[in-house]
Design brief:
Strand content: 15-25%
Largest sheet: 4 strands, antiparallel
Structural class: alpha+beta
Distance between the termini: 93 Å
Shape: elongated
Order of helices and strands: HEEHEEEEHEHHH
């Protein structure tokens, strides 16, 4: 009985068949993963924003609310029931930089990872711990599409933003730019709020500046800088009073 040696063409065909099988398996696993994720989104309930920072304005009291990490975890874990999905996080700290990513796994072995979220800190253990908590919360929330960020129903910093309905009014005068002193004051307030709120200074700074419609302090007008200074100071004073009352 003659057994012919495998030809080059037959090896290619076998290799192509294996690739096709692997591809079909990946599609099947991914389909089950997506089905579980869809089930999660149908049954997950938005977590309550139990983290509060209150402040006062001329128009009355305002709230700056956010979701605590433990409440976010609870909401996601409850939403994952009977979905076949689970999650965990990789956390690293080196040279003052903390980074976190979230990995979602399916019981069939398929998994997806979020991108790394990095924050540079002063290297102080307290700052690193605050940054790590914030990164965990933000990464987890964005991975599962569950809002965890602060919600400011006052947005005092936007009080000076022109009403779009009045956009027909022409004003050719250029607003007075913020001063160096205002910018320095804001940076100091951002650092103080970072320690008080337990969040990375980059996140605090970017959050406030975004509310004012800019990306850097030197882009603020004089009036917006003043409004932002008052906003941060009022929130800090409220937090300080709350801390003293709990002593």
């Amino acid at each position: 009985m003659n057994i012919s040696e495998p030809t080059e063409n037959s090896n290619v065909l076998e290799g192509s068949s294996k690739i096709e099988v692997d591809y079909q398996l990946k599609i099947k696993l991914q389909s089950a993963f997506n089905k579980g994720l869809s089930h999660f989104r149908q049954q997950v309930k938005a977590p309550k924003k139990n983290g509060h920072v209150g402040y006062k304005t001329k128009s009355g009291g305002k709230n700056y609310d956010y979701v605590l990490l433990e409440d976010l975890i609870k909401a996601i874990d409850e939403g994952l029931k009977d979905t076949g999905l689970a999650w965990y996080q990789d956390c690293e700290t080196a040279n003052g930089v903390v980074r976190v990513r979230t990995i979602v796994t399916h019981e069939n072995g398929y998994s997806k990872s979020s991108s790394w979220m990095e924050f540079k800190t002063s290297g102080n253990p307290q700052d690193a711990g605050s940054a790590m908590t914030y990164a965990k919360r933000y990464s987890l929330g964005t991975t599962f599409g569950v809002s965890s960020e602060a919600d400011d129903d006052g947005q005092q910093a936007n009080d000076t933003t022109p009403n779009r309905n009045n956009s027909q009014r022409k004003n050719t005068s250029k607003p007075e730019a913020s001063t160096k002193q205002q910018q320095t004051t804001l940076e100091g307030l951002f650092k103080a709020m970072s320690k008080t709120a337990g969040a990375p200074i980059e996140a605090v700074r970017n959050g406030y500046l975004e509310k004012a419609g800019v990306s850097q302090s030197n882009q603020l007008s004089h009036s917006k800088a003043e409004s932002l200074i008052k906003l941060v100071m009022s929130q800090l004073n409220k937090q300080t009073d709350k801390g003293n009352s709990n002593d």
